[in-house]
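Q: Hi! First time asking for a complex rather than a single chain. Here are the components, and I think there are two in total. Is that enough to go on?
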Amino acid sequence: MADDLVKALVDLEEKEVLRIVEQRLSAGENPLMILDESRYAMEIVGKRFEAGEYFIPELVYSGEILREITEMVKPRLTEAAQVKRLGKFVIGTVAGDIHDIGKNIVAFMLDVNGFEVYDLGIDVPAQKFVETIEETRAEIVGLSGFLTLAFDSMKETVGAITAAGLRDKVKIMIGGGQIDDEVRKYAGADAYRPDAMAAVSLAKEWVGGK
Amino acid sequence: MEKSPEELYSERTKRVEDAIQLKVPDRVPVLLHFAFFPASYAGITCAEAMYDYDKMRMAWVKTLTDFQPDMCENPFTMRLLGPVLEALDFKQLRWPGHGVGPMSTYQFVEGEYMKAEEYDAFLSDLSDYMVRTYWPRIFGALEPFKMLSPLHELISYYMGITNLAALDTPEVTSAFESLLKAAVEARRMLAGALAYAEEMKRLGFPSQFGALAQAPFDIIADFFRGTRGAMLDMYRNPDKLIEATEKMLPIMLHIGVSGAKRTGIPRVFIPLHKGDDSFMSPEQFKTFYWPGLRALMLGLIDEGLTPCPLFEGNYTSRLEIIADIPKGKACYAFESTDLFKAKEVLGDHVCIRGNVPLSLLCTRTPDEVKYYCKRLIDVVGRGGGYIMDAGAGIDDAKAENVHAMIDFTKEYGIYR
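A: Yes, that's all I need. Here is the structure of the assembled complex.
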């Protein structure tokens, strides 16, 4: 039965997923099991994306189905889901830029892949990144930006992190529209990644290497 | 002897048209989307560029005359939007002074401006849906229009005449006042645009584009359903999504054709947003995106016009698909598509334009820019059919790098 849910979610059979979840909840099954399996299915979705079988619409749609599952399961949860977290990840669109399609997908894929994500939203001042790193003691920072003005905002954000004495405590990755390795050098970040799953893989590498 | 503006105008037009028609021009043409670059270059803010006619005109004329690209853009209808957007309390953009800083470009506010369950209303009576549902969402000043009765009910003397009573409320009256204020600003903007076009002609700069249209899918995904909504629709409402794009096609075609006829410039700019390699699979591209874009381009070509899409993002994986277009009739500009691959696949078929990366123009040196341009001219420029450009609008590029790109192309890009 477990395989049915995983398979249906991986194959994006929305109605089938909801039917299975409904059925299993009425049968009195532990909702945490359902969430666990869903999370596992999302990892497979991520792998299909990496393999070039799935694209952003599939990430968005699977995310939407997962949201529906969570809504159904929530009222039945008696204990909070204890998810083992791989690490803490602070993410945001840098100052002056309000684009967030890509950033939201990255944040979502990090979350389903086991990171505790602090999403600071859009147009995030450098100081806000610094404060959040200090509060959360996050290991990784992700800076997102779409416009050319983001190049300088990224540079300033990395500068503020350095000025706060936190540069050797965090790894910084960047991504978004015009971003590439040249911008990575310019901003002084550790890495540039072109898509959500590449960001997840690198983040796993970074926390694994600690 | 110095060339007259008339000579320059026709020489530049011929250079670009030769490239588009896959002939070998005298040299590689160089064109740019300046975006808000002229503002900071000329020492004004983006906010001033969006509101102040004289300052904006001065900044753009200065940029054009200092840099001397082969053609110009008319910045009025794309940049001087402040007064008209403000009159309408427009919600889909944040612009300098309205949600972003004075030196920031304007930015689109992503959103689900049409709900999935509204497809039927959209498809059955588009104008009524726009006026009473969509406009109230995107224009704060027109929110009271949601109180109007269906527009198609006012048919004759006793048929729907009482519906007019809804107009006689303080809210709707004020919405009409805003609309009239916006109309005054729109007329000023248009007058500015016409005067600017005349001035450019006197300076010897032809316009790159005579009109703007968009891929039908992008219209739905950008302005109505939002990126997320359109992606979900590929699964939940695929037929309605396709129907909606089909409904947009004749509208886009009319906008493109009438605009180009009015300005007398045959090149129609089609900036593309949501069809790139990561935003959808090749199958989804063939199903949802390409049919509408291709039909739009073919429709323009049938009218004797030249579709000039800018493929924003990366289209390297779908070059074979987009190659299906009549020879020498279009100009494809690319952002981060592999241009060497594009030359192989499209080179004998479509003029290619692009794509010096913005990262290079914003963060590196003139020598590095020249080196990059040299490779583009050597490989993509071989045998004509190529126009030098940056990958996208050059907002924050360094002036010396822009000079390097243009001047180097003029020197090195000569065909012998």
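A: The first strand of chain B starts at residue 93 and ends at 96. Let me know if you'd like any chain examined more closely.
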